[in-house]
Amino acid sequence: MLALKVNKVSKIYRLGEFNTSSAFQSVKALFKRNQEEILNNNRTQEAQSNLIYALQDIDFEVPQGQVLGIIGRNGAGKSTLLKVLSRVTSPSRGSIQIKGRMASLLEVGTGFHPDLTGLENIYLNGAILGMNKREIKSKLEEIVEFSGVRQYIDTPVKRYSSGMQVRLAFAVAAHLEPDIMIVDEVLAVGDADFQEKCIGKMKTVSGEGRTVLFVSHSMGTIRSLCTRGILLKNGQMAFDGSVEDCIDGYLKSAMLVGEDGSVPEGMSLLNNGMGRITKVGMFNQEGHIEKVVRFKSDLPISISFNSASYAGPILIGIQVKNVHNDKIVDYVNSYDQSSIAVEKGISELEIKLDNQFLPGKYYLDLTIALPNGEAIDSIENALEFSVSNLGATPELNYNSTVVNGYVSGKASWLMK
Amino acid sequence: MPDQKWDRVIEPKKGWFSLDLAELARHKDLLFLFFKRDVISVYKQTVLGPVWFFIQPIITSLVFTLIFGNMAKISTDGMPPFLFYLTGMTLWNYFASTVTNNANIFGANQTVFGKVYFPRLLVPLSNILANLFKFSLQLIIFLGIWIYYTSTGRVEPNVYAWLLPLNLFFTSCMGLGIGLILSSFTVKYRDLTFLVGFGVQLLMYASSIIFPLSIVSGKLRYILLLNPMTSMIECMKFGFLGQGVVTPMYLAYAYGFSFIILFIGVLLFNRKETDFIDSV
């Protein structure tokens, strides 16, 4: 049995000032509409037309009881897809077939009225999701219990913290027994305990044969919760399959740097004209890019930075991330009281990271900033590297079959 | 995969005439809760609460009595000025707040509409209910004062007073219709929100509230009668106070016109609700 079937759904948005335009522009647009070409939602390209695909021919089916993770970079179309699914906006093309009742949790405080109390909002929210008063009443105790806001239940929600609002909103959505539950990145607001509670709840919900669609940037959460993943890229479906492969595909697709270490123009997160990173890589003695390093061996990173207008001291920040996309170590030259200054034009930087990483795969974000912390250029997933079991010297081979964490700790070991 | 039965199909745009009444009916609990929300949230954190609903028409009528009655000496056709203005204002206030509340419906509910789906028409309907609630409180005040004047023999009501429910119904149609038509444009053209407030105020002067229609003659009278509210207010004044210009023809026109406005309003609103969030 399918819970959801999405048939070639596209959503086209108009860029620029259209929405608040004057009547004149609106009339003009009426005549132009058919001639305009619709662009892919590829933000790295200069827009030629002002119509853009936020979603393009999205096509998939979800069987009942499946937990589907939807991942993609910012602007890939995840939230648009959820909006179309939850009927907040209509698709431009294509159709969606739904079986059963659907509850969606988009952003903080879904459908809450700030002046009403928590309790009144539970009823309002339940009714919005299509429940009647009796059904809500029977679930009320569980909702209040789960949300943990019992003390504040008679207080207007405008006085709630954003965390409390999310807790209450999630509690309502999860306990109203929807057949399909849609959860956007909202849980990020709650604390770790509550997130865990929510994930546990979503697992239970799916165990009861309900379907969950879940969007998150936390690959760890996606991995632990979902059985299947969909990867969106520039509004198109880039991958559909097992969650492991999907996450792998996501991290790969997020790699922007070419095989020779050169950074294509327009690929950085910022573009303020002050300067940009043109090359980044881990090169071996022969000048080839190295992808695998030995346990506890050196981690040399070369960076070319082309300063267009700035000359002076800079901060270099490097964050190493694990395969779940969690940042685990932060390197900044100021931590080591090392000051680096650049001239106008190309500067070559040579950085040697202290390699304490345990065997596994790692990704690296790179930022170059002004001394006050304002970023000049920043590249996400600039590098990918693996640490192997082989040690820098044979005594350092990593022999344990399990890898306990990501970084080997340093301590002094004494016998008394 | 064999074909299976789906509960719902989401498609690009609905047709012009796809009002799903069954779905509206399924959400009747929500309608009630919205109504409650609209009423409660108005006087939350106020000391006087619903008493404000009483104060407003009384003060306005007093001011009108002072300015238009005593100072400008505009005729009230021999009716007691205070009651004369109160009669007009009671029905007019209901109409005016229905229009202004509904005209800005997408803006005011942007956060809710942007996150969850429910039949959007519930919001204007609950608006109407909340305004009806307010109206009924104001009607109590009006009736109290009217009974006092009637008992002293200063006004002579007639059977036209019983047309009040009908007038109320078509005033609702008119207010809702105009509000919905405006709402589907205010989304895109914010200029209209400025216009609505003072447009409604201007319309009041074209609705025989501060003057009796009987003092207007010729072409101007017909222009005023184009506005359906004129006939309905005249009808209320005639029924309760015994003076007013009413003919079945005028009323039939007013009722018919209101209904057509409502029809157009619902069509436009229904058309707009699926993708308004993209243009807010």
Structural features, described:
The complex is a heterodimer of chains A (416) and B (280). Chain A is of the alpha/beta class. The radius of gyration of chain A is 25 Å and the shape is globular. Chain A folds into two domains: 2-253, P-loop containing nucleotide triphosphate hydrolases (Rossmann fold, 3-Layer(aba) Sandwich); 270-415, abc- transporter (atp binding component) like domain (Coagulation Factor XIII, Chain A, domain 1), CATH 2.70.50.60. Chain A has a six-stranded mixed beta sheet, with helices on both faces. In chain A, strands 12, 14, 15, 16, 18 and 19 form a six-stranded mixed beta sheet that branches. Chain A is built from eight helices and 19 strands. In chain A, helix 6 links the parallel strand 7 and strand 8 (211-215). Chain A has helices spanning 23-32, 78-85, 118-128, 133-147, 162-175, 192-207, 219-225, 243-253; strands spanning 2-14, 38-39, 51-63, 67-71, 93-98, 102-105, 180-183, 211-215, 228-233, 236-242, 275-281, 292-295, 299-307, 312-321, 327-332, 340-342, 345-353, 360-369, 375-391. Chain B contains twelve helices and one strand. The two termini of chain B are 41 Å apart. The relative contact order of chain B is 0.14. The radius of gyration of chain B is 21 Å and the shape is elongated. Chain B has 280 residues and is mainly α. The interface between A and B is large, with 49 and 40 residues. Strand 5 (93-98) of chain A pairs antiparallel with strand 1 (8-10) of chain B, so a sheet runs across the interface.
